[in-house]
Amino acid sequence: MNKVVAIIIGVLIVGGIGWIVISNRTAPDESDRQVQLEKAHDFALQDYNDNTVKLADFAGKPLVINSWAAWCPFCRKELPDFVTAQEEFGDKVVIIAIDRSESLAVAKGFTDQQGTTGKLVFLLDPSDSFYQSIGGFSMPETIFVNKDGNIVDHKRGPMDLNEIRQKIEKIL
């Protein structure tokens, strides 16, 4: 029995190390390396009022584009922080929150409950195309786009308000 337990523990350790190595290879911390600038992918998505909103509508403006969902516990904390950042930076930056594959009722119901509706640009992405275009694999995911339309930073996972502020300063 002890031999079986030892084998199981060994497999778990090797598997854990393998997962860490793969994760670090596929999702390096962009703050620790020079990021090659690439253009943000264009999109045409609907807002809560069924208006089509395109990336081109924000040409010349620094953007923060966050991929979120009502089921994501980290998003629950992050959306109000994005609202605070939007209020602090005003018209120097536009913060866009793109909901992943949820209905208007679910997304808007959630932001209504939070009191964040109308305080950011909220868009619906029923096909999850934006998340796929940025190579998303964690939640939430956020890209920071400079005024030239280049992605300066790509954050995988949650941020607190101070990190959001620091990353916005990089694109101003």
In N-to-C order, the SSE pattern is: HEEEEHEHEHEEH
| Derived structural class | alpha+beta
Domain count: 2
Report the C-alpha radius of gyration, rounded.
18 Å
Number of strands: 8
Span of the ends, CA to CA = 61 Å
Number of helices: 5
Describe the structure.
The chain is α+β, with helices and mostly antiparallel strands and 172 residues long. It has two domains: 1-31; 34-171, 3-Layer(aba) Sandwich (Glutaredoxin). Helix content is 40%, strand content 23%. It contains five helices and eight strands, in the order αββββαβαβαββα. It has helices spanning 2-26, 73-89, 104-114, 129-133, 161-171; strands at 38-39, 44-47, 52-54, 63-68, 94-100, 121-125, 141-145, 150-156. Strands 1-8-7-4-5-6-2-3 form an eight-stranded mixed beta sheet. Helix 2 links the parallel strand 4 and strand 5. The protein is globular, with a radius of gyration of 18 Å. The relative contact order is 0.19. The model is unreliable at 16-35 (pLDDT under 50).
Short note summarizing the structure:
With 172 residues, the protein is of the alpha+beta class.
List the topology elements.
Blueprint (H helix, E strand, L loop, with lengths): L1 H25 L11 E2 L4 E4 L4 E3 L8 E6 L4 H17 L4 E7 L3 H11 L6 E5 L3 H5 L7 E5 L4 E7 L4 H11 L1
Parallel strand pairs: 4-5, 5-6
Antiparallel strand pairs: 1-8, 2-3, 2-6, 4-7, 7-8
